[in-house]
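From the shared-data thread, chain only:
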Amino acid sequence: MDLKEELALLVRQEQALQFEHFDEHVAWKLGSLLYNKAVAEQWPLVIDVRRFDRPLFLASTPGVTADNHDWVRRKTNSVQRFLRSTYRIALQLKLEGKDITQRYHLPAADYAGFGGGFPISVRGAGVIGCVTVSGLPHRQDHQVVVEALCSVLNQPLASLGLPPEAL
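Structure, as tokens:
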């Protein structure tokens, strides 16, 4: 899959992975699913599920560092600013041959063009928050979030998941 095809897949993910409603109970279910997967796989992972006005779920597994928490903050800022996944931002920047500072004049200390942040969209309301993880390679961070969203929303991972990376 080339870069443009993968970008088109990311757009489809964002269109398909929308909630009918989103509250604290749904946030807990999503965050817990991610946390349990990280524990089972022994991944060092920070998991943050939030509405833009408040955090709803925050957890980390052994092995994370303060840097991972900072990556979550920066990825969250990027989702809130652009209302799209940070992996989609990353691929668009790669396609343009630029980084987030060159393209948008945003400080890299506060924004990140790397995968792991995904918008929480509610049908009829739009993007109200995001789910963000940090600790794995950024493409895998994105895929872990997509897998959890597919599970919670009963969407087919086979058609929405990222294909294996070409070597």
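The two ends are 12 Å apart (CA to CA).
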